[in-house]
Design a protein that fits this description.
- The structure is a single chain.
- The protein is an alpha/beta fold.
- The chain has 23 helices and 29 strands.
- The strands form seven sheets. Strands 3-4-6-10-11-12-13-14 form an eight-stranded parallel beta barrel, surrounded by six helices. A five-stranded parallel sheet has the order 17-16-15-18-29, sandwiched between helices. Strands 20-27-21-22-23 form a five-stranded parallel sheet.
- A hairpin with a 7-residue loop joins strand 8 and strand 9.
- The model has no long low-confidence stretch (mean pLDDT 97).
- The structure holds adenosine-5'-diphosphate and iron/sulfur cluster.
- Iron/sulfur cluster (SF4) binds next to helix 12 and helix 14.
Length: 688
């Protein structure tokens, strides 16, 4: 039963000739399923429509081979042959009464054309985005006409594919229509350069072209970045960003507004903790147009959503990540099940997959991307064939997820945890600066488990192998987590660092257990994800004098994939934390630490350290499992899951726990669960 306070979220909204059934709007977002995995794409989007999203959009869709994104897998609509795969998506979305939207994208100098090998184009000749040794040529007037024509052709195909909403895309600093707007990229002296009216001409014309072509039956959305957060060097919501909205105010049927670049739009919770963090950049849009406005801000709470509507900030609640973490978020609000919402934690593991060209995954939602491949549904799981008593040891992300899914299948679940509080690393790491939302991984699952009658949870119970054997439970999952290594072995050193045992060495586990050093502290990061950098910030805040030594050329290098690397490095530098890159710890003698260049081992810098924190690599906490393995004949199931089996991300742990619960009792071996694959069909007829 819908809480009357939230009823406004379920009002229909007209978007030109089409009507969204409610205000929940999944804005275009990448999932790396796209043109290579169209059935998975359709299932992924279809589940969101089933979960109540009134509008469900594609990711960016290439409209012409002169702007193609290889190796990234996005959507593709180059010609008529691409229509059937889009039809899969629109049918899946329509099956649940939602509207389907498509984001047409011409990326220009943001596309490297590694497949088509066509020279990229830009408003003015320039070197391409990223670090490719490629330049883009300046567009001629004929090129400009072509880009308009290609948008129109793609829009017509999109309509034939069944889309209800067609996007004209000028956001994220990723597309030609935005590049023309930017003074820094548009140096043209013709009618497409110079004044803002001129720089906006191509966007204006394309918008009108697309509206003329399909606007009688399709809603035309304009996705626009009102601010680039670059100050005078970019579009700003107080000046040209605002002026563009004023100029085009009534032309689109819908304004989809956000900030650029992607790192600012999809900011992690570490750097933008608040829901609705884009409001200050986009709130003005509704004052300049009568057309509906959708915007994002990692919205997960209905109160924040209602506030956006009531205060006239937005008409539709846009979401990418909240819809990934919980495809059923709208239905849960409608049914008054607010406590069942699985809130996004803002970690950007989903984004990292896109940057790595791997199919989407999510820390909070292990079924994300697996809807077609494994037929996993985010809210449903196959009931157990026979009910069993199951013991799970360890209540971190893996143990909690495994327990929850086994309990949902109907099994009698006992969950034992050595510590007095549940949650494992997700609870502990949430104490670190900027990571408080990580506790949502544990909170959601604990809350769900507490409401199930067939679950018993035993915090403060460190079980030994003997205890477990004595319990006589046949099915045991060991989710005892992992420990950071103390000896410095990791990626650079595959063995203990010389002299390391003479030093005062701590690990991130010690820090999380409140054992923080003071004085001169070296953090040695050979792991390259979050931990080294965030521990540096934490200990600096506690008054220690930190030097971060990393074997990589930049701090927390893997976080380039979560769009945080630049933010982390700049934050640490501003805090005055010492940073030594491309160096390893070569030898240690008590408090004397020699760090060596990884390129020239004889270039050594000597440092003093009261303590060294090793963030190099982790080892699974397998002692319990190993001991239990000696009694294997007493168990029908004895399985390691999560970090205990293989240390990894929290996303890997929730997936591991989920997978173990899904395949429990299926009778298949570890590698028998081969999933559905989309295999390219070879056409045997002669090609002309
Ligand atoms: P994962 O990410 O794989 O879930 P975590 O490290 O977050 O791993 O969680 C592992 C949990 O297992 C920790 O909370 C730890 O206290 C608990 N644990 C470890 N050994 C035992 C044990 N013998 N009995 C009960 N709980 C244990
Ligand atoms: Fe949110 Fe992280 Fe899931 Fe992405 S991976 S949707 S940021 S919880």
């Amino acid at each position: 039963m819908t809480d009357p306070r939230y009823a406004v979220l379920f009002e229909p909204v007209e978007i030109g000739p089409v009507t969204a059934p409610n205000r929940f709007y999944q804005v275009p977002h990448c999932n790396v399923l796209g043109h290579m995995r169209p059935k998975a794409e359709a299932a992924n989007r279809g589940v969101k429509a089933e979960g109540g999203w009134g509008v469900v959009c594609t990711q960016e869709v290439e409209i012409h081979p002169s702007s193609e994104l290889t190796p990234f897998v996005e959507g593709r609509l180059w010609d008529d042959r691409d229509i059937p795969q889009h039809r899969l998506m629109t049918d899946a979305v329509h099956a649940h009464g939602a509207l389907a939207g498509i984001e047409l994208a011409y990326n220009g100098h943001h596309a490297n054309n590694l497949y088509s090998r066509i020279s990229p184009m830009a408003p003015s000749a320039t070197i391409v985005h990223g670090n490719m040794p490629v330049h883009a040529r300046g567009m001629t007037r004929a090129d400009i006409k072509n880009v308009r024509r290609w948008h129109v052709a793609a829009a017509k195909r999109a309509r034939r594919a069944g889309y209800d909403i067609v996007y004209v895309y000028a956001g994220h600093d990723m597309v030609t229509l935005m590049h023309f707007l930017k003074k820094s990229m548009n140096h043209r002296t013709d009618e497409y350069g110079g004044s803002l009216e001129n720089r906006a001409r191509l966007l204006h014309e394309t918008l009108c072209d697309v509206k003329d072509a399909v606007g009688d039956t399709c809603g035309i959305a304009l996705r626009f970045a009102t601010d680039e957060l670059l100050g005078e060097d970019g579009l700003r919501h107080e000046s040209e960003g605002r002026d563009v909205v004023g100029l085009l105010a009534e032309i689109p049927d819908l304004w989809d507004v956000n900030v650029a670049d992607w790192g600012n739009d999809s900011a992690t919770a570490r750097f933008e903790p608040a829901e609705g963090y884009q409001e200050k950049y986009t709130a003005f849009v509704k004052t300049l147009t009568s057309k509906p406005v959708v915007g994002v801000g990692r919205f997960t709470s209905p109160d924040a959503m209602v506030s956006q509507i009531k205060r006239g900030v937005l008409d539709l609640i846009g979401a990418a990540r909240p819809s990934i973490a919980d495809p059923f978020l709208p239905n849960k609000i409608r049914e008054g099940r607010i406590e069942d919402i699985r809130e996004c934690i803002g970690c950007n593991i989903c984004v990292a997959q896109d940057n790595l060209s791997g199919p989407i995954r999510c820390t909070q939602n292990p079924t994300q991307g697996e809807e077609w491949k494994r037929r996993w549904h985010p809210e449903r799981i196959e009931p157990a064939k026979t009910l069993e008593q199951v013991l799970i040891v360890g209540a971190g992300p893996a143990g909690l997820e495994c327990a929850l899914q086994l309990a949902r299948r109907g099994h009698e679940v006992m969950l034992a945890e050595a510590r007095n509080s549940l949650g494992g690393r997700s609870a502990r790491e949430s104490m670190l600066p900027g990571l408080s939302s990580y506790s949502r991984v544990a909170d959601y699952r604990i809350n769900q488990l507490q409401r199930l009658p067939n679950v018993q949870m035993f915090p403060g119970n460190a079980l030994s192998a003997g205890d477990i054997v004595d319990l006589g439970i046949e099915h045991v999952f060991v989710a005892t987590g992992s420990q950071w290594r103390r000896d410095g072995a990791g990626r650079f050193h595959h063995h203990a660092i010389d002299g390391i045992h003479s030093a005062h060495v701590l690990t991130p586990d010690d820090i999380l257990n409140d054992n923080s050093p003071s004085g001169e502290v070296i953090i040695y990061d050979d792991d390259h994800y979050l931990m080294g950098g965030v521990i540096a910030e934490h200990l600096h805040n506690n008054g220690a004098n930190i030097t971060l030594v990393t074997t990589e050329p930049v701090v927390s290098s893997w976080t380039v994939n979560t769009l945080e690397q630049d933010k982390i490095q700049s934050k640490l530098m501003r805090m005055g934390i010492g940073i030594i890159t491309s160096h390893c710890i070569a030898t240690v003698n008590g408090a004397n630490v020699d760090v060596a260049s990884i390129y020239c081992a004889d270039q050594i810098t000597s440092l003093y350290a009261d303590a060294i924190i090793m963030a190099t690599s982790r080892v699974g906490e397998t002692d319990l499992f190993d001991e239990l393995s000696n009694h294997a004949d007493q168990f029908s199931t004895l399985k390691q899951i999560g970090d205990c089996e293989v240390p990894g991300t929290i996303a890997a742990a929730t997936y591991s726990g989920h997978h173990a619960a899904r395949v429990f009792q299926s009778g298949a071996g570890e590698y028998d669960h081969l999933y559905a694959r989309e295999i390219i069909q070879i056409e045997l007829e002669c090609q002309h």
